[in-house]
User: Fold Extracellular metalloproteinase from Collybiopsis luxurians FD-317 M1.
Amino acid sequence: MRCLLIASLVAGIVGSVSGHRAPVTARKSLGFGPIHDHAVYKSNPYQIITNGFLPQSSDADPFEVARLFIDDILGPKHVQTSYKIRSDSYTDPSTGITHVYVRQVVHGIEVADGNMNINIKDGRVLSYGSSFFNGQVPSMISLQDNYSLRYPHSEYCQDLTSELESQFSAFVALQNEQVPLGSQSAKEFDEFAGPLTHLHYSNCQFHTLADEMASQRPQAIGEIGDMRPALLQFMVAATPSSDVVTDILSKYDQHLEKMTVSGVNHFVDGEQTYLYIDNVPDAVKPVKAHMAYVQVPTKDGSVELVTAWKFEVEMEDNWYEAAVSAVAPHRIISVVDWASDAPIPSPEEPRKPASYNVYAWGVNDPSDGERTLEKENFDDLASPVGWHTLPFDNDPSYKGVKPSKEFYRNTTTTYGNNVFAQENWEGQNAYLDNYRPEAGDSSVYDFKYKPKESDEPMDVARNHINATVTQLFYTCNMIHDLYYRYGFTELAGNFQQYNFDRGGRDGDAVIANAQDGSGFNNANFMTPPDGTNGRMRMYLWNTANPYRDGDFEAGIVIHEYSHGLSTRLTGGPMNSGCLGWGESGGMGEGWGDFLATTIRSTKNYSDYPMGAWAANRPKGIRNYPYSLDDSINPSTYQTLDKPGYWGVHAIGEVWAEMLWVVSQALIKEHGFSDTLYPPLPLENGTVPSDDFYRPVVGKKPLVPIHGNTLAVQLVINGMKLQPCQPSFFDSRDAIILADEELTGGENFCTLWKAFASRGLGTDSRVAGRTPWGGGIRTNGYATPKKCQ
Assistant:
């Protein structure tokens, strides 16, 4: 009853304030997991040497260096635990740094959250992050590996209740003080409290039925392999539909019987073997599952391994990676929503570049400028065969017979190797046969866009679908090519249907849906691991008449695409679970805001809001514009403790503001480039400096000259260096390390002073972090001694 009371109270408060905010709808999304206080990130060479590991010879195999380093870290415990170096490890040709990703293994089973990332160059370990389990390894998998024994269900529900009550009380206090309730604080409370109350309700109220069902069919040790009850319990928490919840609970046995399980075996040694569960309620595809260990903190402060099922669940609006305890009552332990040179063949028939009538790169939205006719950006490095060409064998839409001796297919629609752009008025997952504008042999995508006020604003929007999809296709391809040139390449897990034999996994062009019918006033991006298509959904905004189309606000598109960038670069291309909740989930939002704001900025400094045009709100959809003036944007590290800053978007605002301050400090030091886009490569493949890069010396990486271009490079390089589930501290240190490796540390003090000015100095602290995002933070304004 207590749980229901809290849920109803929260629903009442959220409902009461909804009328005061812009109609920014949010899909339901779960994201939380255990806090690993034993996790470390070391980016100082003295810390690594102190551990006893000395640099190897400069020509040593980096993967052998990694193995020696891991064995050194594990020490005598190596007899109890092992590891595997993941196949998505790679050497970044732009920096020369080898990023080695490691997964811990116990009894032949992966520790799902036992990650290590090691960054190596010239025989030296530059930095490493580790969340490897370092406690007592269980003797075997058995029913004694029960989450409920380690963490009693009553305590689990009590902790969840206390956290929810504390956040609820803080929100009520905020209202009682009559502080103006901004749209974002209400939105963030809704974002935080809605999923948390639903989780509480499903885990603490409905587990009784699951327990009863389990008691009627007692599990022997051999039956721990039946993951269906655990998956059903997760679907109760995950589904946004109350009808589906009721159906599952009233027809539990029927759903259990319908769910069929099939296995997949791999011939390649070391690849994860999955089971597939079909007929799962509210899932749009069979659910992938495998058994794993998960680390769970106990009441005495230690950490123990719990046997769990790892699920990958694709739904209409979510794509979840979840860990659920293998033994009843099957509680959710963690959940992340993914909703992240060889010779190149030449096309047989040269194709002239396309042109598009669009808001050009750098024009954020219709209030910023007029549409112009822009040519396809033929970047031989980022998109070697252009934006409308892909191999027949890699084209999922091609149903004909492949012409003999032909490798590539040229398209005359918004469909190519990097992006599949189309309408999605029905709001479903189908996309291959959805409508796309046709340019024909002219390759000119020139369509009208002059929406007018109407009694039927939806019809007006749909009548301009050709211009809408063209704009989305153009913007996404420009983002692809820009990020490629800053290091988001095939090896790093970028989004391409064909990778030109340059590494990484094929088959993951971005599915970009315009005017998606599944909602209004929002946008989202789903990032599964490398080799599976990312999915972007852009919505109409009914904030004005005529409706405003999010596809025409570049900042929104860039923000969403940047989720794919940060998710694939953090923890490795095949690990999409590293930015799921808390500070790390918030930074996933913050990088998108920062990059979108940086791309639209000019040499004449200005403050910038996010989403202002689409939302029809001059101050945008965040609490504050991004500004150097702390009277306009007062965000500091300690701001994360305020009511209204529990959700990932509000956390992301603080991180984006810090990065904005950092980038402006670099601009003050190094000046401003009118374009973030690097010079196009010459015919021989070399990249000219063109007052963009420092002169190249030997095999040194390309170093941007100007402050804004350098900031983008350091932020992207930092994503590659930081650990899985990074904190603000980890990502700050990774950016500072990125500068050390790129420039020799020229900006060490500039970076430290900028971070410290917003409370993220050497003396900043956080205590008492919880799986739901809580904790007490302390601003720190100190810098290293050499900077004082």
